[in-house]
Amino acid sequence: MKAVTKIFQNCGLGIVLLGASLLSNYTLVAVAQDAVSSQQQIEEVAQRLEGIMDTSARARVNSKAANVRMTACRISLNNNAQATNKSNNPIFLYQEQALSSELNKPYRQRFLEISSVNNGRTVRSLSYKPANVQSVINLCNKPVSERIVTSTDLGKPVCSVYLTRSGENYIGITPNEGCPANVRGAVKITNTIVLSKTGMNTWDRGFDANGKQVWGAKAESYEFRKITQ
Description:
CATH topology: Lipocalin
Shape: globular
Largest sheet: 10 strands, antiparallel, barrel
Oligomer: single chain
CATH superfamily: CpcT/CpeT domain
Family: Belongs to the CpcT/CpeT biliprotein lyase family.
Helix content: 10-25%
Distance between the termini: 34 Å
Protein name: Chromophore lyase CpcT/CpeT 1
CATH class: Mainly Beta
Keywords: Lyase, Signal
CATH architecture: Beta Barrel
GO molecular function: lyase activity
Order of helices and strands: HHEHEEEEEEHEEEEEEE
């Protein structure tokens, strides 16, 4: 964590961001109001999460680092699907992560509801686990008109993360208790994220029932950078 603290100090952030995560199965984002309306903040966070990011730059200089691709796109809810926060106009995203060599086999999939809470001072990213993960693989490859999700498809909410706006970045961290999980031996996931205009750095970690870290970032972050195709 010394490395994380140093990065935040150098950026003048002074506070730890979440993700994500995305931005893990669960990404909750909180954004402080800074002369920007709550709806503008929701839009800005969604735009930064949208598109394609990968870790190819790190993989090129570190043979042990995996090249991971993260893809996110907007989806529409049909009339039967209801947002959990009705005080604003939330934006819904579909997000998946996969090894760049196995894009048809994502190892993490989620729906994200980006909304405003705390009287417009915070943006929340509430993560849902899709009810049928196989049916939504590569959903972002479909035309916008076909990215329609029902309340059943959306699945159950899993975890929320709040992002705080600081300068040009959004910073945050998962709750102290982390987010429940069942991924590669982990029952809990924590994540620290710095979301910028060009991508995001994440410290994604999985812990077993004994509190031991079983996978994820150590001192170095996962560095996702936006790419174009």
